[in-house]
Amino acid sequence: MGTIHEDEKKYGAVAKILHWGMAIIILILIAIGTYMTGLDKTEPSKMQLTGMHKSFGVIFMQLVILRIIWSSINSYPQLPNVLARWEKLLSKIITVSLYFLMLAIPFSGYTMTSLFGHPVSIFGLVDLPLLFEKNQKWD
């Protein structure tokens, strides 16, 4: 049976659920984003798909934050001792870079949406505040 907390040899159940949940959401975001960008602006389903894309993006961003918090309060498996020091350092740099991108990409979408004056909501249930006033130059 899996454990909730990580140990020195394997990740716990929470870390695995967060990992695979985020992986599935990334695939959904890529699929929706790729499909919707190919649609004409007058296509009625484009707005629905855009709303879904924003909703999944917000959920993803929250999961990343939760994952960072979970990683900081739990131990995680250590890298094998057979790796050279530079390989361990490179692994940490790549990990930090991936976390940065996992936060920066959805945040940039939220920022762009706000600058265009469009709302961001989670499936129409919860509206997020606009981060900025609408930029009139972009009308």
Query: What is the strand arrangement across the widest sheet?
Result: 1-2
Largest sheet: 2 strands, antiparallel
The average pLDDT value, as a whole number, equals 87
Give me the secondary-structure category: mainly alpha
Uncertain parts: none
Helix run count: 3
Approximate shape? elongated
Roughly what percent helix?
55-70%
State the distance separating the first and last CA atoms: 56 Å
Describe it for me?
The protein is mainly alpha-helical. 62% of the residues lie in helices and 4% in strands. The chain is built from 3 helices and 2 strands, in the order αααββ. A two-stranded antiparallel sheet has the order 1-2. Strand 1 and strand 2 (126-128) form a beta hairpin. Helix 1 runs antiparallel to helix 2 (44-73) and helix 2 (44-73) runs antiparallel to helix 3 (85-115). The termini are far apart. The model has no long low-confidence stretch (mean pLDDT 87).
Task: Present the secondary structure layout.
Layout: H1 13-37, H2 44-73, H3 85-115, E1 120-122, E2 126-128
Antiparallel strand pairs: 1-2
Helix pairs in contact: 1-2, 2-3
Short key terms for the protein model shown above:
139 residues; mainly alpha; 3 helices; 2 strands
Task: Summarize the entry for a quick read.
This protein has helices at 13-37, 44-73, 85-115; strands at 120-122, 126-128. It is mainly α and 139 residues long. It is elongated.
